[in-house]
Design a protein that fits this description.
By secondary structure, the protein is an alpha+beta fold. About 45% of the residues lie in helices and about 25% in strands. It has helices at about 5-40, 95-100, 105, 115-145, 190-195, 235, 255-265, 325-350, 360-375, 375-395, 405-415, 420-450; strands spanning about 45-60, 65-80, 145-150, 155, 170-175, 180, 200-210, 210-220, 225-230, 245-250, 250-255, 270-280, 280-285, 290-295, 300-305, 310, 315, 320. The strands form 7 sheets. The chain has a 4-stranded antiparallel beta sheet with strand order 6-5-7-8, with no helix packed on it. Strands 11-10-12-13 form a 4-stranded antiparallel beta sheet, with helices on one face. A two-stranded antiparallel ribbon has the order 1-2. Helix 1 crosses helix 9 and helix 4 (about 115-145) crosses helix 11 (about 405-415). It is elongated and about 85 Å long.
Length: about 450
């Protein structure tokens, strides 16, 4: 074996690991800081704020007596409050009794001696901070990208193979093939508009150029152009790239994305031979589409054959700055969609409607982290926000040892007037840790065998 041939693979592995560590560390830091800062505001003292577990690589103690540290194993983090026995906020009975004997007032600064409202707020703050981070990132991405100008205005033109391109940057498109272009805020308008266009390689575009209305010829609006490659997909496995144009399938020429989609969906998983144009070069690839469970707009899931690419328009539309309020609403809406889709997916996996292979473990998340980072900073940051929502949601599950489990205990205390007994808590925490470890093993097996 040529040792030099392993260098690119080793470099890609390091890149993937680094992206995974960065993504997970950011999410953990936000989550744990939520616990820490709300706990501090609530009068609960934090002894340790840790990013990672195991041997400590770096630490310092601040003026409040909290030790901030970075540990060797970057698979999570924790805040250890006064009176906690461990990172899962188990009760240290000896420490609590000693504090109560020496200074009853100090007991108020422990997690277990604080009022119910303070404990509830502190525990709930972790997932809430994860959601808040996602909302902020989604809103900022929407704000920075802007919204397409009305009417549709040509920005940068995408390079395409062997086509007549009559459009110029700055052209305002008012109609295509005689069909007026709809407003972007018209629900379903664009789908109906594209469906109404005649299916042919070149169309007539009516544009306003320098104040004059003229007709020009240009390619189909959505060629078989790859705008984005989905991580852990068939397309990524064969190294298709953003900007690639698929010109033929099994030797049959195609000129738009719908033709590509129809051939993939009807393939039944059969290997397809693709002719691909990349920066003037003609390439050939073979790949087998994969069954993919996708959420439907009206709820539930539908299974399709997919190769894992997102279509692109033949030009980048010119944009205008989005409003702050619209950006905030978009942030909330995007976060809500992820939560709704995650819950729906879990329910459909439980009922057997879709495959449990949709659950990814640390290996899958690491691969996706590296893939998204390789597609640019904005895609990577967007992925971190998606993962942050998932982590916040997971932590709210009513499983002992997770935040949702603690909140369930506090709900019991609020109703009964007393917390669960220490023996009951120990048993429940053991069950919760067993469930979490089982889920981790299951997700890793998915990464390896699905």
């Amino acid at each position: 074996m040529d040792i030099l041939s392993l260098i690119p693979q080793f470099g890609n592995l390091l890149y993937t690991i680094a992206a995974f560590i960065i993504a997970l560390s950011v999410i953990v830091a936000v989550h744990e800081y939520g616990h820490y800062i709300v706990g501090r505001w609530s009068g609960i003292h934090a002894e340790v704020f840790s990013i990672g577990f195991g041997p400590v690589l770096w630490s310092r103690i601040d003026k409040r007596g909290t030790r901030w540290q970075v540990a060797l194993l970057p698979f999570g983090g924790y805040v250890k409050f006064l009176g906690d026995a461990n990172a899962a906020s188990g009760k240290d009975e000896d420490a609590i009794n000693e504090i109560a004997e020496q200074s009853p007032e100090e007991l108020r600064r422990t997690m277990h001696g604080a009022p119910l409202w303070a404990r509830t707020a502190t525990v709930a703050a972790g997932p809430i901070f994860n959601f808040a981070m996602s909302i902020l990132v989604f809103g900022l991405v929407y704000w920075s990208q802007g919204v397409s100008r009305e009417p549709l205005t040509v920005g940068a033109l995408q390079p395409l193979p062997g086509v007549e391109q009559g459009l110029l940057e700055g052209d305002e498109i008012v109609a295509i093939a005689g069909v007026p272009t709809p407003d972007f805020d018209h629900a379903g308008g664009w789908s109906d508009f594209v469906d109404a266009l005649p299916v042919q390689p070149v169309l007539d575009y009516t544009v306003i150029r320098d104040g004059e209305t003229i007709d020009v010829s240009a390619p189909w609006l959505f060629p078989a152009l790859i705008q984005q490659v989905t991580p852990r997909s068939a397309a990524m496995d064969i190294q298709l790239q953003q900007g690639d144009v698929i010109t033929a399938i099994d030797g049959d020429p195609i000129f738009n994305f719908e033709q590509l989609k129809e051939r993939v969906e009807s393939s039944d998983g059969r290997v397809l031979l693709l002719d691909v144009w990349r920066n003037g070069a003609e390439l050939e690839f073979a790949l087998a589409p994969r069954r993919t469970d996708e959420p439907k707009a009206d709820g539930g899931f539908v299974t399709h054959w997919r190769i894992g690419i997102v279509r692109g328009m033949m030009f980048e539309p010119q944009t205008v700055r989005a409003g702050i309020w619209d950006s905030v609403k978009t942030g909330f809406a995007q976060t809500g969609r992820i939560i709704e889709g995650s819950l729906s997916g879990m329910w459909h996996m439980i009922t057997g409607a879709i495959s449990t292979c949709n659950i990814s473990g640390p290996i899958g998340i690491a691969e996706t982290s590296g893939a998204m980072a390789s597609q640019g900073a904005q895609n990577f940051i967007f992925f971190i926000a998606v993962l942050s929502t998932a982590v916040g949601l997971l932590n709210l599950f009513p499983i002992p040892a997770l935040d949702g489990g603690h909140l369930l205990f506090y709900a019991y205390e609020a109703v009964s007037g007393k917390p669960p007994s220490d023996n009951a808590l120990r048993v429940l925490m053991g069950i919760g840790i067993t469930l979490i470890l089982s889920l981790m093993i299951f997700s890793v097996s998915n990464d390896l065998f699905c």
